[in-house]
Each structure stands twice: as C-alpha cells, then as structure tokens.
Amino acid sequence: MSGIAASRQRAALPSVQALEEVVGEALERARALGAEAAEAGLSVDQGLSVTVRMGEVETVEHHRDRGLGITVYLGRRKGSASTNDLSREAVQAAVEAAVRIARHAAEDPHAGLPDPEDLAREIPDLDLHHPWGIDAEEAVRLASACEAAARGHDRRITNSEGATVTSHEGVRVYGNSHGFLAGYPATRHSVSCAVVASAGEAMERDYWYTVAREPEAMEAAEVVGRRAAERALRRLGARKLATRRVPVVFVAELARGLVGHLVGAVRGPSLYRRASFLLDAAGERIFPEFVRMTEHPHIPRALGSAPFDDEGVATREQDLVRDGVLVRYVLDSYSARRLGLRTTGNAGGVHNLTVEPGEHDLAGMLREMGTGLLVTELLGHGVNLVTGDYSRGAAGFWVEGGEIAHPVHEITVAGNLREMFANLRAVGRDLDLRGSVRTGSWLVDGMTVAGD
C-alpha cells in the first residue's frame, strides 16, 4: 500500500500551448535542414489503474508517457524518428535523424502531407477534458465496492477476476509545414468487474463495465458489480446445441464488432493491398435499404469525438452507408492517393460511427426473431477480411417464441460477412455508446450454429 500513499497527487499535464511550441520548433528545425515538408505529433498522457481481487489490492499502476514523432519529406522520400525526451537538444536530434533517414529512403509517389484544403480551419471545443480528482486510495475504495457488490449479490458468485478502476488524461498536439498547428486535451475513465458463478460443477464467467469522458457520467461502481454478477448467474445451466441454421441476435456490444469488420474491410490499406472482401464495393448495396451508418465526430463528450484526425484533416458528419449502399471508403491521405481518391478524414479511425437505430429494444428484437440464438459472448479471432468468412466461438441464450429458453455455451456461429450484412433484418434501439462505433443489437438471418 506504500504506492497508494505516495500517489495522492498527479502532476498537471502541460498546456496545449506549451506542446505547440515544441512541435513548432521541430518543424522549424526540419525546414532549416532542407525538408520540403514536415509533420509532427506530440502527446503527453498520464493515468491511474487499480485492481482489487477477492477483497485484496492486486495492482496499483500509475503511468506518465510522452513522445514526439517527426516525419520529414525530401521530395517523395520520407523519414521518421521519435523521442521521449522533449528537451530542445533531443528534439533537434530526432529531426536530424528523420532527415538522414529520408535521404536514404526510396521514393514513394504517394508520400506527403494532406492537401492544405483538407486541413481543419476551425477547431470546435468538444468538451472532451474532464479530469477525475481521484487518488489511488479512493480508486481502491471504488474497486472494492464494485467487487463487493458483485460477490455479495448471490452466494453462487464464488470467485472473481477482479474489479478495476482506471482514470486517463492526455493532451495531443499535431502540426505540419502547411501551417496547421493545434491540439486538445481529453480524458477517459472506466470501472469494470468480472466474476465467476458456480452451481455444482458448473462455472460461468461474465463481466460488465462503464466508461465515459466524465466521471459523473459513469454508472455507479456498485451497479457495475451487480450487473456483472447478474450476467454470470444467468449463464448457469448452459447447454450445448445441435448444429442448425437459425437467425441470430448479437447484443449491441458485439454488434459493434461487426461494424468494426466492415470498417476494417473498407480501410485504405486493406483496399490498396487488395486484401478485402469489399474491393471496389463503393456504390454497391451491401445492406438492406433501411441501414444507414453516419459519422458524427463533433458530439460533445462522446468517446469517438475529435475536431480533426491524426493528420489535421477536418472531421465532419458524413455517411458511410446510406440506404444500404456503401457510399465511400475509410481513408487517410496516403491511402487515398494510392487509390486515386481523397482523404475522408479518418487517419486514426472512425469518429462516432453510428448505425441508425430501429424501433425495438433487446426484448423486442427477440420477439422479432421468434426462435433462434441470442449471442452475448464471442471467442476467438476467426474472421477473414480477405474472404469475409466468419467463424467465432460463442455463448448466449436459446430463444423460443421470442423468450429466452435457456443459456447455451461451447458453440460456434459461422457465416460470411457479405451474407450477414445482406441478411441483417433489424437493428435495435438499444444503442451502446461506449466507443467510437455506436450501434444497437443486430438480428441476422440464416447463420450456421455449430454444436454437438
């Protein structure tokens, strides 16, 4: 516990202005050394993570990281270097190293900065910075309360993988020789818990978590613990299933992964490497007509919000799928040039990509399905983005007449992503907002469930 007593106060992060000065000096040094163009990103992050398991403090971790990455361009030759030392001498040495590397690099006709007209000119304040004045002692108290609520919920909760409280705060600045220089601070906090329920020789594990920019927006620690316990308990008595072809409902937190597979397949590197099942699919209907997916990057306090992407390109509200049609790809400036297209402002990923919700909550989705499988956990990594083949270990519940009949485990759900997208029957209104992809549950027809 000595680490707790020693860590009551975290140092303040440097200001955006202070980091802008460092980035500006790096760019000036690159120009002085003959670089025709340059870009630099600087971040400083700090955080606290505490885990309590079986009533005992298991870990107390503090981190404080910082780093500068500099990239220079000599014509179409590119060189990059980085440093964790932000002293003037170390920054200058990193710039000099990048220039040396560029002199020996092969020419790449697609290398270079984003086009100036694509850069953000106005930087909206998205209210992303909400520091949590929590020290390690208070984090231990919250984690203990979370786990105690789970373990005390029912005597069948017999073991715990622990409860964890995290608090993260960072500031990032990006600049380039087109004159762009901006940054912003952001926070992210979470509480999570995973426990094991037992009945006879049967044991089942489950978890729950809450995450938000603002500590006040998270669920109470005790609520997280009880939810984890309830989820583990409801899985007791799980059975296997005989192999069959049935409709499947993916709960919202798992449906988010299906959207992630779509994004992975339409990212620039997958496309210019010809390693995607959605090659040349822009303009093609890949979902039913009711499906719409839109990025909303400027939602205040949302986890996927950003005023500009990792290259300083302006983020904006834009559809990815409209009326079931894939209307664009997900590109940074390099991949856009490789494909003869224009950046979509997605260097670093998507920003609050939201699947337009339907009319049903999860209970309504089960009634819509009638008889089939509700998937609440996926295992393994059996997804091939080149072919679209999908096969994952799974657990969840067998549903009959729109009502849960019994839990199931040790099964596999399989299909092909193209067919799964085309066979999407409904999207729930139970939006999961805990990430950069926001969606409700999905009802997909015609999947193979393999068991006994």
TrEMBL record:
Domain (Metalloprotease TldD/E central) spans 130-236
**Domain Metalloprotease TldD/E C-terminal: residue ranges:** 243-451
Annotated SUPFAM superfamilies: Putative modulator of DNA gyrase, PmbA/TldD
Q: Which GO terms describe its biological process?
A: proteolysis
Q: Which domain of life is it from?
A: Bacteria
Q: Where is the Metalloprotease TldD/E N-terminal domain?
A: 38-102
Cross-referenced Pfam families, in alphabetical order? PmbA_TldD_1st (PF01523), PmbA_TldD_2nd (PF19290), PmbA_TldD_3rd (PF19289)
List the molecular function annotations (GO) for this entry.
metallopeptidase activity
Spell out the GO cellular component terms annotated for this protein, sorted alphabetically and separated by semicolons.
cytosol
Q: Which family does it belong to?
A: Belongs to the peptidase U62 family.
- PANTHER family reported for this sequence: METALLOPROTEASE PMBA (PTHR43421)
Question: Which NCBIfam families does the record match to this protein?
Answer: PRK11040.1
Q: What is this protein called?
A: Microcin-processing peptidase 1
The record lists the organism as Inmirania thermothiophila
